[in-house]
Amino acid sequence: MFSRLNLDARDMTALSGADTVGMADCMHYSDRVYGADRDEEIDPYFAQTMKQSCQGPSGKAPFDMQTPMRFDNAYYRNLIARRGLLTSYQTLYGGGGPQDNLVEMYSADGEAFARDFAKTMVKMGNVPPPMGMPVEVRLKCSTANY
């Protein structure tokens, strides 16, 4: 799917780093820290800390606890330390393939991450919308411009 958009695994790994900034609702990570998705692929201390932020339906946690408001490469360091907040994040690292190498490179070299992220954002900006589909640049991502 992504290859037809001229995006590859490197692009997707770089793009995932956008979630170094932001928050997740408890419902999106509770299975990871409480059980259904819980396995040896999560740091036990991290799981305990996340449980504390997930005490009710309004619970939230930052994607990156160390630098939640800074766009940096901490997201990748967290993956290596088994502290990916969402299960889908953690699957980027630990499979032994080329993505592991990218995660390790980005965790060690924030400039490489920033460079690849910028290149990939330009690629994304060049992806044309589907034929015949109306296009809207939203003023607020979560709401249509009515």
- In CATH, what is the class? Mainly Alpha
The profile of the biggest β sheet is:
2 strands, antiparallel
Helix content: 40-55%
Q: Please tell me what the overall shape is.
A: globular
Oligomer kind: single chain
Description:
It catalyses: 2 a phenolic donor + H2O2 = 2 a phenolic radical donor + 2 H2O. Keywords: Calcium, Disulfide bond, Heme, Hydrogen peroxide, Iron, Metal-binding, Oxidoreductase, Peroxidase, Pyrrolidone carboxylic acid. GO terms for molecular function: heme binding; lactoperoxidase activity; metal ion binding. Ca(2+) binds at residues 20, 64, 67, 72. InterPro entries: Haem_peroxidase, Haem_peroxidase_sf, Peroxidase_pln. The chain is mainly alpha-helical. The chain has one domain (13-118): Peroxidase, domain 2. The protein contains 7 helices and 2 strands; from the N terminus they run αβααβαααα. The chain has helices at residues 9-16, 26-34, 44-53, 74-80, 87-90, 98-108, 110-125; strands at residues 23-25, 60-62. Strands 1-2 form a two-stranded antiparallel sheet. α1 crosses α7 (110-125). The model has no long low-confidence stretch (mean pLDDT 88).
Features:
2 strands, two-stranded antiparallel ribbon, iron, pyrrolidone carboxylic acid, disulfide bond, Peroxidase, domain 2, 146 residues, globular, mainly alpha, heme
Short description:
The protein has helices at residues 9-16, 26-34, 44-53, 74-80, 87-90, 98-108, 110-125, and strands spanning 23-25, 60-62.
